[in-house]
Design goal:
The chain is α+β, with helices and mostly antiparallel strands. 23% of the residues lie in helices and 39% in strands. The protein is built from ten helices and 22 strands. An eleven-stranded antiparallel β-sheet has the order 15-14-13-12-22-21-20-19-18-17-16. Strands 8-7-9-10 form a four-stranded antiparallel β-sheet, with helices on one face. Strands 1-2-3 form a three-stranded antiparallel β-sheet. β17 and β18 form a beta hairpin. The chain is globular, with a radius of gyration of 26 Å. The termini are far apart.
């Protein structure tokens, strides 16, 4: 660790430079800054193997000394938010960037999939937009790199002074460097420790992820208790849209309906809800509500593949929110909850990782839900002022 004079942690040294076969520290260390470590803490608590962020664009320093986009992926969220070739990057996550090196330094402190505010100038117009960052590695590539990593070589004890003098007389002859030794297999793990270890691909230890999942689901159920002791609930939500028209939402097993003014739609299966998100329509409200209802009723064990993701900003805003992910048929659902109240503030439903998800934003007064706002990217499609929310048993 690196501390300042007042004992505050500034960074964590991961590597250092040495001379004479690793016996003399030359005073150069390579540290992870404390700000970067704090950004990744929530991800590390998930027990996952995690990755750094990238913008999905290449940035160079132009002759005027400012960072400009030299190439960009059309599948990136940055492209969907309007970033284009030759745009000048001004800020990333509230930090001013003055050249391409600054851009890389800021991105290196941020985890994959964080959504942060980007400020850029294009054709004389300055824009500020929330951008969902991509990962440096593909998941399989990241896991391959981690699986091939070996532990450091064991420390070599200092030689007696007589041997040092003899070595000096003979001259410093290069000797083969110590090779990393593989971990010993077959070592018995103490019973108390083995209870805290759960192997799962993509995780350093899945045990800690299970603990975080349990914390999140208990919070969800505590703030929104079921009125009936059954997993087969029907949710009926009524209110008004921005035009003052009546809105009714019905969500139950194989029974989904939405009425907003003159617009009406219904579905008899979850598979039909997929099309609503693909088309970026107001029907995106239904799978978000259905996933929320199902997670509360059956829990992560029966919901599908579920895991705690870590902490991240909500559309670029702090404090960092807890994020839990669940795979719901062909859809991926993310719940973002406030770290203090545990309230769900946003549910994101992805039908395609290369397109904007349906985002259900939830507003409350105390424990009561007062507003539902469906968004895609920065566009709000339907906002409902909630008047009544019934949770009843269904057949």
């Amino acid at each position: 660790p690196i501390y300042d004079a007042e004992g505050r942690l500034l960074g964590i040294v991961g590597r250092a430079s040495f001379e004479k076969r690793g016996r003399v520290n030359v005073g150069v260390g390579y540290a992870i800054s404390i700000n970067q470590a704090k950004n990744f803490l929530g991800y590390l608590r998930s027990g996952r193997i995690v990755d750094h962020a990238t913008l999905g664009a290449s940035v160079t320093t132009d002759p005027d000394g400012v960072p400009v986009v030299s190439n960009i992926l059309e599948s990136s969220d940055a492209y969907r938010r309007g970033l284009r070739y030759d745009a000048e990057i001004l800020e990333i996550d509230g930090r001013v960037v003055k050249n391409a090196n600054d851009v890389q330094n800021v991105l290196a402190t941020l985890p994959k999939n964080w959504r942060v505010e980007i400020a850029f100038r294009l054709d004389g117009e300055t824009k500020r937009v929330p951008v969902r960052l991509m990962g440096v590695h593909r998941q399989d590539e990241l896991l391959s790199k981690m699986s091939s990593a070996l532990p450091p070589p064991p420390p070599v004890p200092d030689k007696p002074e007589e041997e040092d003098e003899k070595e000096g007389e003979e001259g410093d002859k290069p000797k083969p460097e110590s090779q990393p030794q593989p971990r010993q297999s077959g070592t018995k793990i103490p019973e108390a420790a083995s209870k805290l270890i759960v192997d799962r691909r993509g995780y350093a230890n899945y045990h800690f992820n299970l603990l975080e999942q349990q914390r999140i689901i208990e919070s969800l159920r505590g703030q929104f208790p079921a009125e009936e002791d059954t997993e087969h609930q029907r949710w009926v939500i009524t209110g008004k849209n921005d035009a003052g028209e009546e809105v009714k939402l019905t969500v139950a097993d194989n029974e989904y309906g939405l009425i907003s003014g003159a617009t009406a739609m219904e579905a008899k299966s979850r598979a039909e809800l997929y099309d609503g998100i693909e088309a970026a329509s107001i029907a995106g409200l239904l799978p978000a509500l259905d996933a929320w209802r199902t997670m509360i009723n059956v829990g992560p064990e029966r919901f599908g593949e579920s895991y705690y993701y870590g902490t991240m900003p909500l559309a670029g805003e702090r404090p960092l929110r807890d994020c839990m992910v669940g795979v719901f048929g062909e859809l991926e659902v993310r719940w973002l909850t406030h770290p203090e109240t545990g309230h769900v503030e946003c549910i994101e439903v992805f039908a395609d990782p290369d397109n904007d998800p349906a985002e259900l934003w939830i507003e409350r007064e105390g424990d009561k839900v007062t507003s539902l706002d469906l968004r895609y990217g920065t566009l709000s499609l339907l906002k409902v002022a909630v008047e009544d929310w019934k949770r009843e048993a269904s057949e």
